[in-house]
Amino acid sequence: MSFKSPQLGLYLRITALLSLALGLSDAGRLLGINSGATSPVAVLGSSGFVFLAIFSLSRLFAGVGLWLKASWGAVLLVGSTTAELALYLAGNGNIHMSAPGFAVRVILLVAILVIFALSFRFTRAQAAD
Fold it and tell me: How far, in Å, CA of 68 to CA of 95, rounded?
């Protein structure tokens, strides 16, 4: 799958910035920015802390991959966001998410799926020529 289409460039960069912002927000939660003097491990629990660390890092790497227009960034973003949403919807108590956080993750997942569809369409159009 090629993300070299000029039409996808701006859309990829916006999605990459959204992914980076969400990853940095999660990294801030890992550092305990909003938890005051309480340890983030105590707030999230050890399993929740590990889950948040994995999803935060994967989202940051995916954002960089999308910025570089590499297909691995999109695959990593779809995988990590789908896994996080699936764990949350399955009722895993270790995944803590607010309503706006859930909405941003759903928007991010829909955005990357639209990128896949547009890239597939662009590739088919090039093959037809």
Answer: 29
Other C-beta atoms closer than 10 Å to the C-beta of 57 total 15
Q: Is residue 70 part of a domain?
A: yes
Q: Which residue has the higher pLDDT, 33 or 128?
A: 33
CA 73 to the chain's CA centroid:
9
* pLDDT(8) > 60: yes
Place of tokens 């949403």: 85
pLDDT higher than 90, residue 93: no
Looking at the structure of the chain, the number of domains it has is 1
Say if 44 falls within a structural domain: yes
Looking at residue 3, the DSSP 8-state letter turns out to be -
- Work out the end-to-end distance of the chain between its first and last CA atoms, rounded to an integer number of angstroms: 17
Cα gap 98→85, rounded to integer Å: 12
* pTM of the full structure: 0.86
